[in-house]
Amino acid sequence: MTDSIRFLMCPPDHYDVDYVINPWMEGNIHKSSFDRAREQWQSLYHLIKENAIVDLVTPAKGWPDMVFTANAGLVLDKTVVLSRFYHKERQGEEPYFKIWFESQGFTVHELPKDLPFEGAGDALFDREGRYLWAGYGFRSELDSHPLIAEWLDIEVLSLRLMDERFYHLDTCFCPLTGGYLMYYPPAFDSYSNRLIELRVPPEKRIIVEEPDAVNFACNTVNINQMVIMNKASDNLKARLQEAGFTVLETPLTEFLKAGGAAKCLTLRVTEPIIIDRHAVINIESRTVLMEGHLLDAGLINRALDLVVEGGGSFQVLNFNLGEQRQSTSKAEIKISAPSHEVMEEIISQLIDIGVVSLDEDQRDARLQPVEQDGVGPDDFYVSTIYPTEVRVDGQWLTVQNQRMDGAIAISETPNGLVAQCKILRDLKLGERVVVDVVGLRTIRKTESREPRNGPQEFSFMSAGVSSERRVELIVEQVAWELRQIRDRGGKVVVTAGPVVIHTGGAQHLSHLIRQGYVQALLGGNAIAVHDMEQSIMGTSLGVDMKQGVAVKGGHRHHLKVINSVRRCGSIAAAVEQGVVKSGIMYECVKNNIPFSLAGSIRDDGPLPDTQMDLIKAQEHYAELLRGADMILMLSSMLHSIGVGNMTPSGVKMVCVDINPAVVTKLSDRGSVESIGVVTDVGLFLSLLVNQLDKLTSKYGVVQVG
Ligand SMILES: NC(=O)c1ccc[n+]([C@@H]2O[C@H](COP(=O)([O-])OP(=O)(O)OC[C@H]3O[C@@H](n4cnc5c(N)ncnc54)[C@H](O)[C@@H]3O)[C@@H](O)[C@H]2O)c1
């Protein structure tokens, strides 16, 4: 027996599965055997008693989980941080444990009422006492960690739990004597896994596989070189033995029904103490402000979800709810993250939905010089589609050429400082680039009710193909917009793939161009080739467009067409020489509509107009997109996604594709102005042309008889 090691246990007199607060309890209400539970608990108790001192706390009736004393609190030396249970089902245990700790002379620290922390279930000391691993995500709140660090004077390393089955840190993580760590990596997010790997060298990491993890192998009591657990596979036993441990198995199946095993049933009250230790807190906090129709537009939920999904936690410090339908609400939120890196990621997403830092927290953006043409500093801020402002020398600059996936470059000009979005290759030596996420905000109209970044705008197609009526409604809406844009001299850009031709849509798109609804066309080699194939030979990819049947040898048609156009020197020349007499390309040339054909690896020919230098093609696309009011994206995944990335928010986008995944991919950019239509593109274009003709027809004169 090791005199110096003490544990606290609680006899299972009132143990049962009475409610469901974790996945293990599901289907197990009142399914545990009282006798077997008592027997299993006794075996564990005796095993530990042979090796350490065990104190007992008196079980209280009505609190069946009191048997899991790991959740009584977290003890270091003569100090205890008492648990604040997350679920009301366990909150009644708190006073009983408090009485016990006080009776034993511990200094008891209690967390604020709404700050859950579940004791040694979610906080495990490195066995040399150098630091404390603390879990969060299910039961304990990240914001409890700084208080624990301060009260126990120790460095706290926060780990985020991701798998509901492993809801407490001690269900999937077990520091062992000699600096070893037995754990189940998939229970943690990637940041936490990196942190573990930074602190524990590879030879000390004992990775547990899923079958052992679900047998609660990590829920182990470690006394010096001994590990006591419910069950371990031969592999795990061998690995532990190799590391110098003796494995003792003692079945605890009755307690597994409640989601606990050996470690959960014990609380170690004598932990190794390092005298020269200091509180170290890696957690970063920031306070941000949100303003607008926070509830109607679902913005507040979206913001809080982003914080939690990103690995942080939040506290709403103030919430002023607008009283009338038109009044806006205001919320002040404190956000915590386990590291600067995680905070940066969370804040950059919050900036996208219009969250701003509080006035007192407003700082200039951090800028770093470009040290090599075409290469940004390491942690450059990645731009989004939203209108952004950046604070330089105390002054907010509007970012020009807003687009997604660029860097924000600041340059000095005779007219002062200029901020603009640039793609990496355009960065120039000497320019300064925004890094980090301070001094940035996106501009969102506070009166807007549109759920920016919300999935709603695309939700109608996420169920699959939109219903016919739904398509008709969207066509009506798009037709109305097209008419409005044309009448006010606006700009509509179409990006289209060859499917437009194969589905019989060429005549409709040609009609739109002729009628002045299209101001620029973007595509690849294929749409132009197949359009002209149809014009010259009546086929599209060898299929007779009138009969709908494949023409013998028709697959060669498009190559012949490419050859003819190459002979002419350009598409425009082919039109002027009468080689191409109708179709989309013909209408573009005849109506002076600029087009850009971007090359790709699968292009035949290519046509003389196809730009095979991709950088030039991207630049030409960007030029034609500038000033667009609306973009119609017609059945080309490649070009639609390319165009989507180049376009700032505020431009209406209509994406038509038969594949919901393509439409959803475009919705990921989160623009509220986007509409997705899952339907056949030929059908869409024919409905659109009909609707436009209806909208623009002369009023019929009613004959009075
Ligand atoms: N002969 C050639 O030179 C040739 C031929 C084909 C493609 N290409 C080139 O390959 C690149 C990619 O071509 P892409 O744009 O055809 O392919 P893509 O895969 O990028 O896009 C085709 C899209 O059309 C959708 N689609 C299929 N049938 C549809 C229908 N009936 N209605 C609506 N949507 C439908 C698909 O779901 C897909 O998203 C382009 O650069 C193109 O020019 C060249």
From TrEMBL:
Keyword Ion transport part of the UniProt annotation: no
Annotated Arginine dihydrolase ArgZ/ArgE-like C-terminal second subdomain domain ranges read 476-688
Active site feature: H168 (proton donor), C264 (nucleophile)
**Entry EC number(s):** 4.3.1.12
Task: Give the matching Pfam families.
Answer: ArgZ-like_C_1st (PF21571), ArgZ-like_C_2nd (PF21570), DDAH_eukar (PF19420), Saccharop_dh_N (PF04455)
Q: Name one GO biological process term.
A: citrulline metabolic process
Known cofactor(s): NAD(+)
Q: Which GO terms describe its molecular function?
A: amino acid binding; dimethylargininase activity; nucleotide binding; ornithine cyclodeaminase activity
Q: Which positions fall inside the Arginine dihydrolase ArgZ/ArgE-like C-terminal first subdomain domain?
A: 387-475
Per the record, the domain of life is Bacteria
Q: Which residues form the LOR/SDH bifunctional enzyme conserved domain?
A: 286-386
Entry keyword set: Hydrolase, Lyase, NAD, Nucleotide-binding
Uppermost EC category: lyase
- Per its UniProt record, what SUPFAM superfamilies does this chain match? Pentein (SSF55909)
Similarity section: Belongs to the DDAH family.
Name of the protein this chain belongs to: ornithine cyclodeaminase
Q: To which species is this protein native?
A: Planktothrix tepida PCC 9214
